[in-house]
UniProtKB/TrEMBL annotation:
It comes from Cohnella fermenti. Coiled coil: none annotated. This is NAD(P)-dependent oxidoreductase. Residues 165-285 form the 3-hydroxyisobutyrate dehydrogenase-like NAD-binding domain. It comes from the Bacteria.
Amino acid sequence: MPTIGFIGLGTMGAPMAANLLRKGYEVAVYNRTPGKADELVKLGATEAASPLSIAEAANIIVSIISNDAAVEEVYYGEQGILAGLKPGAVVIDSSTISSALAVRLAGSAAEKGAAFLDSPVTGSKDGAIAGTLLFMVGGDQAVVEANRDVFLAMGREIVYMGPSGSGATAKLCHNTIVGINAAGLVEGMAIAAKGGLNMESFLRVVQGGGAASKQADLKGVKIIGGDYSVQFSLALMLKDLKLGSVLSDGMNVPTPMLEAAKSLFQAGQTKGYGEDDLAALAKLYEEWIGRKI
């Protein structure tokens, strides 16, 4: 099996790298924040000193990094991936970034004789741990197929979206829906709480009726229990909605619901809830209605 370089060991990246190790791959890991690699090293990973070292050691590189600025640093920095990227290498980037950056990265990789696949994921922290992520992928379809085993060591499904940038676009469209759904769920639950309803009973109604959604399944019990441990942070949801807003503005697509959801998550960030789970949006509504949901 080839050595895989893995960059970004946060909420999603660490369990993804662990699944590669469990499937028998040799994995070299790097994270910008020291200490994040310790548990993976215990599982058999080797820790690299820089993204450049990863690129020099591996022909397949997986990255999942928080935002465009961090991705720029990891790829284009003096000790970045592109400084050491080898001809024939394949980069699988699972970060949620702008489609414009994904296209630029694909062009930069091609100049090195390498392939870049924008491959964001959905499935949240639980899916990363269980290895049940869905990858939405942009880039050369033949390269996607040639690396199917690597994808399926970390997830359950690959959906090919089209040329470079298509995976990134799909993820921003997807997360626009996630943000709107989450805001709608919290708002409806706030009304129910203010109306004096039993919240466990109301959640059963939501999950069994036309309001059923993945967000209701993932976040309903967390909201009722005041559990804001992170599956997907409020700050990252806001970041994705901002990217979605830029994307839609560039397409001249009116997005009133996206903008409303973005404003709500911005309010949550301003209140200091950014590092909580996105379900912490409920704390805003609890302040507004004067009671717990």
